[in-house]
Amino acid sequence: MKFFVDTADVAAIRELNDLGMVDGVTTNPSLILKSGRDILEVTREICDIVEGPVSAEVVASDAEGMIREGKHLVTIAPNITVKVPLTWDGLKACKALSSDGHKVNVTLCFSPAQAILAAKAGATFVSPFIGRVDDINLDGMELIAQIREIYDNYDFETEILAASIRSVNHITEAARIGADVITAPPAVIKGMVKHVLTDRGLEQFEADWAKTGQKIV
Ligand code: G3P
């Protein structure tokens, strides 16, 4: 499973990247807003840090505008993936950009039917949003499972990029189902290390070690 970080926070990306935890980065207009940075400048900085794909999202709503913006975004760095929304125009832009050899991430996917269209349009990645499906009392993980089943039925090469990840359990479950990639906020990725028994065990070892009066170095 590949780990993408869902943020435009350069310091957080750098920290995880130094640990070898970053296979790519995803950004979106909301994350750019949160960063308070200029999209082109911050995306360039992220691409300098991370070797893998860095998704940068178009904001036009028509295919022509998306293609124009996508062609500009790919000039930032060779590892840019153009992110387009799962609309009819987004699919047209996906087809055009992927036919030109660019990587495309089709985002805002909320149904298996939409995911089929993304694969047919040549998407490199499709991004089903787990958390936002859960938000409306449907099952985000079931969406991942259905897309996995369909893509496997037909050997579609589009990678399932599980997005809108809000918890460690989301990551574990997406991994069990076989999502190719997860993209999660840095805090959720760092939260994966936590376990109460690890903390309790360490406390015990420290207390016992202190009683030995020994030192390793
Ligand atoms: O990758 C998409 C993600 O940023 C959306 O997450 O938590 O805003 O639904 P969320």
SSE topology:
Elements: E1 2-6, H1 10-18, E2 24-26, H2 29-35, H3 39-49, E3 54-57, H4 63-73, E4 80-85, H5 88-99, E5 103-109, H6 112-120, E6 125-128, H7 130-135, H8 140-154, E7 159-162, H9 168-177, E8 181-184, H10 186-191, H11 196-212
Parallel strand pairs: 1-2, 1-8, 2-3, 3-4, 4-5, 5-6, 6-7, 7-8
Helix pairs in contact: 1-3, 4-5, 6-8, 8-9
The structure holds SN-glycerol-3-phosphate (G3P).
SN-glycerol-3-phosphate binds at residues 6, 26, 28, 129, 131-132, 163-164, 166, 183.
Write down the overall mean pLDDT: 98
Helix content: 40-55%
Q: Give the C-alpha Rg.
A: 20 Å
Helix- and strand-based class? alpha/beta
Level-2 CATH architecture:
Alpha-Beta Barrel
State the end-to-end distance.
Answer: 38 Å
Low-confidence stretches: none
- Strand elements, count: 8
Largest sheet: 8 strands, parallel, barrel
Please give the order of strands in the largest beta sheet.
1-2-3-4-5-6-7-8
Looking at CATH, which topology would you report? Answer: TIM Barrel
What small molecules does this complex bind?
Answer: SN-glycerol-3-phosphate
Number of helices: 11
How much of the residues is beta strand, in percent? Answer: 15-25%
The name of the CATH superfamily reads Aldolase class I
CATH C-level name: Alpha Beta
Order of helices and strands: EHEHHEHEHEHEHHEHEHH
